[in-house]
Structure formats: structure tokens, C-alpha cells
Model the fold of this input.
Amino acid sequence: MIENKAQNNNPLHGLTLEAILEFLVAEYGWEELGQLINIRCFNYDPSIKSSLVFLRKTPWARAKVEQLFLESTNNG
Done:
């Protein structure tokens, strides 16, 4: 029950990393996204697939992407 309550307050609950990344790419484009979050997978030959692989393995980068998403949707 406590776990359920915590998820109700999580604005990312139910969103996949892929959906978050696709939103950010549509909102900013790869070039601006690479300026906002300076990681190689956004700046050199960017793709959703390669970015997802990197973000799933790199917690600090994923946290930055999630934070930008929250700020972009006024949930942060």
C-alpha cells in the first residue's frame, strides 16, 4: 500500500524512458537537447535507440533527462 501511494506522487510513473526521450526530441530537437544535456549520444550521430542504450546504463545521465522532462512539462 505504501508503494502505491508513493507512485501516485511520482509524475514519471507509467512513462517509459523511450516516451520521455521522444517527447524531448520533438520539443527541442537533437541539437538543442545536446546543448542542454551535454552527452555524446545526443551530439554525435544521435538516435533514439543508441540514446536509450546509454541512458539505461548511466544513472546520472538518465536523471538529467528525467529532470529536463519534468521541467519541460511543468512537473518539476
